[in-house]
Amino acid sequence: MLPAVDVDPTGRIRVAWHDCSFRRGCLGNDVVLSTSADGVVWTTPRRITSGRSAAIPAIASDPAGGRIVIVYYVVGTGIDAELVESTDAGTSWDPPRRLSAQTMARNWLPETSGGAMLADYISVSYAVGRPLAVWALASEPAGGELRQAIFATRG
Q: How many domains does the chain have?
């Protein structure tokens, strides 16, 4: 689990992470969210995504208040980056928006001693009132060499 944390202008702490506990048999992950006003008492984790396996979320709160955005990877037969946004402080969430122009094939990932490595380089911040998501995805290897690039998208 790689938790992501942000604090909104009111001081409310939000923590997002990927978790399989909302699925029978733990088949795939959802992005879940818990909040706290004081860092001691936390809300019950709430599922933000469903239907696809999500991993490695990043979270940001708009400094102007009320809006929250979460960016994450969707891992299936391929890998994409997606963004979900709430305009009402997390009460409801818009449908996910795909950020990646091309689905990354799983066999484009680098192999490590622990298996295939999905980049954990993912971030989101608000800039001039809009979310700015940054993530890494690979493209097809060329000449036996891996190719990975960093992308940025304004929401």
A: 1
Q: Which CATH number does the domain housing residue 122 bear?
A: 2.120.10.10
Task: Per residue of the chain (155 residues), give pLDDT as tens.
Answer: 789 999 999 999 999 999 998 888 777 899 999 999 999 999 999 999 988 899 999 999 999 988 999 999 999 999 999 999 999 999 999 999 999 999 999 989 888 888 888 877 899 999 988 999 999 988 899 998 888 889 999 87
Rounded Cα distance, 36 and 45, in Å: 11
